[in-house]
Amino acid sequence: MPSPPLTDAQFANHARSVRLLALDVDGVLSDGQLYFGNQGEEIKAFNSLDGQGIKMLQASGVKVAIVTGRTSNIVAQRAQQLGIELLLQGREDKLIALHQLTNDLQLDWTEMAYMGDDLPDLAAIIKVGLGITLPNATNTMVLHSQYVTKRCGGQGAVREVCDLIMQAQGTWDTALAPYLNTQLAVPS
Questions:
Q1: DSSP assignment, residue 33?
Q2: Alpha-carbon separation of residue 118 from 20, 115, 127, 138, 174 (angstroms)
Q3: What is the predicted pLDDT for the residue at 117?
Q4: What gap in Å lies between CA 68 and CA 93, rounded to an integer?
Q5: Are the C-beta atoms of residues 44 and 31 closer than 8 Å to each other?
């Protein structure tokens, strides 16, 4: 049975309790295109807006996990660059991977948000407290998700969600403050 989309107020209510944002990679952190070189090397493009949002969200106290069915050195490198310690690769069954995270982190399902774009993500989207997809996801995902981002995967959609979670939790102003500092130490 499809979930009705959340209103902005309902989204904020669910987002207040989020302690972990789990992300798929292909189609969420990237645009979903798979690029391979002649030697079989895999190439992915990640959006810097998403990276900044992930860093800010983690600094606000919300953990971020990457849960992906594929295994890639590029994803491991990106996770390391962003300080993401919870990296579960080669996990085709996302729900089992998330169950492991709930146990390891002693979280309730309602404290978890999951962002995915295709059928391997569906059970996870339905189970977590805040199931999120993207406008370029499959129709089935859009029907069963509680929230659909305005931005597409690989184009700042993760940043959109990070900002909304911080705004709902009242940590946005603190996250933004260092960037609004107009008292620069300029030599006279």
A1: -
A2: 20, 10, 15, 6, 34
A3: 96
A4: 9
A5: no
Helix (H, G, I), strand (E, B) or coil at 42: strand
Contacts 24+ apart (CB under 8 A), 79-84: 81/51, 82/51, 82/54, 82/55, 82/58, 83/55, 83/58, 84/54, 84/58
- Taking alpha carbons only, the member of 69, 73, 70, 56 closest to residue 21 is 56
Q: Which residue has the tokens 């089992």?
A: 96
- Between CA 172 and CA 167 the distance in angstroms is 5
Residue 91 has pLDDT above 70, yes or no: yes
Q: Which residues contact 106 (CB under 8 A, 6 or more apart)?
A: none
pLDDT (tens digit per residue) in 121-157: 999 999 999 999 999 999 999 999 999 999 999 999 9
**Cα distances (Å, whole numbers) of residue 2 to 91, 129, 144, 149:** 25, 15, 5, 17
Nearest to 17 by CA among 121, 83, 86, 109: 109
